[in-house]
Amino acid sequence: HHFPSATFLTSAPRLADCPADTGLEVAFAGRSNAGKSSAINTLTHQKSLARTSRTPGRTQLINFFTVNDPQYRLVDLPGYGYAKVPEAVRREWQEHLAHYLRERRSLQGTVLVMDIRHPLTEFDQMMMGWADDNDMPLHILLTKADKLKRGAAMGVLSKVRHQLKEWEDLISVQLFSSQDRVGVEELNERLCQWLTP
Ligand code: GDP
Questions:
Q1: Which residues contact 58 (CB under 8 A, 6 or more apart)?
Q2: Bridge pairing between strands 107-115 and 24-30
Q3: Whose CA is nearest to atom 17 of ligand 1?
Q4: Does the CA dihedral 167-170-176-178 come out positive or negative?
Q5: How does DSSP classify residue 32?
Q6: What is the CB < 6 Å shell around ligand 1?
Q7: For residue 161, what pLDDT is reported?
Q8: 59 vs 110 pLDDT, higher one
Q9: Residues in domain EngB-type G (predicted)?
Q10: pLDDT for 109-161, tens place per residue?
Q11: What is the best residue among 51, 52, 62, 177 to mutate for testing ligand 1's pocket, by most ligand atoms within 8 Å of CB?
Q12: Domain 3-194: which CATH class?
């Protein structure tokens, strides 16, 4: 798999609008502003494949990108949890997200992006609950690792790993930085593993 080849396929407001549920795909999720769009752009070596937004929570569409072949896809799930969003809208996203995670057969795993300074938010824990319910593997990026000194970043990594010990079959964790391109190879490996039939 060669992620720089990623190209935009389509946007879907709801599960019913998603492309045919065949082949293999990997989703990216995260609380708004965690650094998800930046991580996708870093992975694919593209400046604006996923839009990095200054208005968190505005992207409410599921965006699909193909990698080499339409049978291999990256999926950018709606950013979640910005405080300014009305409760009804928040509930609707939550339902779409849960529905996608539950029903999508081509989904091999989800990359859950967390700001290393604010790991394991309420949203993250909800995602972990859904992953557990659906036996879906999660790979956590502790991103913006450049914001902490190396030792402090390693400290957060081991603390988060320790907290997720009971889920270690389903959940893996790594450091990441879009700014310094830290952890790109490790992420690449996990995605290739998931996208290999
Ligand atoms: P999203 O809402 O999760 O897609 O988050 P974005 O990718 O749009 O990033 C939110 C903000 O964090 C932007 O101002 C980014 O420039 C910044 N950001 C994202 N990743 C990193 C990183 O690895 N290091 C630093 N220092 N800033 C980052």
A1: 79
A2: parallel
A3: 35
A4: negative
A5: T
A6: 30, 32-38, 52-53, 56, 79, 143-144, 146-147, 177-179
A7: 97
A8: 110
A9: 22-197
A10: 999 999 999 999 988 999 999 999 999 999 999 999 999 999 999 999 999 99
A11: 52
A12: alpha beta
| Residue 36 neighbours by CB distance under 10 Å | 29
Alpha helices of the chain — where are they, by DSSP H? 36-43, 87-103, 122-134, 150-163, 184-194
This prediction has a pTM of 0.94
Question: How many other C-beta atoms are found inside a 10 Å radius of the C-beta of residue 183?
Answer: 20
Give the DSSP letter of residue 121: -
Q: What is the pLDDT of residues 71-116, one digit of tens each?
A: 999 999 987 766 567 788 778 878 888 889 999 999 999 999 999 9
CA distances from 113 to 17, 58, 123 (A): 24, 17, 11
For residue 135, give the 3-state DSSP assignment: coil
